[in-house]
Amino acid sequence: MTPSKDYSATFLVDNTPEAAFDAINNVRGWWSENIEGRTDALGDFKYRAEDIHRCTIRITELVAGKRVVWHVLDNDFNFIADKSEWKDTDIIFELAKKGDQTEVRFTHVGLVPTYECYDVCSDAWGHYIKGSLRSLMTTGKGQPNQNEQIKHKHGIRSEA
Question: What's this model's pTM, rounded to 2 decimal places?
Answer without folding.
Answer: 0.88
